[in-house]
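Most newcomers find our protein records easier to grasp once they have seen one. There is nothing in a record beyond a sequence line and a structure line. Getting from the letters to the tokens is the skill we practise here. An example says more than a description, so a record of this kind follows:
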Amino acid sequence: MPGRRPLTRIGPRIPGAAARPLRQLVAGKTGSLMGCAFALGGALAGADAERVAVLRDFGSRLGVAFQCADDVFGGQRPQRHTG
């Protein structure tokens, strides 16, 4: 998106100072979206509650990893490569 600000640039410039709030912000955005998508997919496929919970956790972690990679690589490559 034009004009968007990567999450890695939010907060103070002190190393590690904003790590926890940043992690919470990322988990609440892309992590929640991916976790919900994976959990819904499992539920619609007939998975039991325990498996749906595992899928939600996996999706959430994958979403956080994706957002971190997007923030790191998004500013380093031309948009035609990163979307």
About this structure: Helices lie at 19-44, 49-74, 79-82. Residues 19-44 form the longest helix (26 residues).
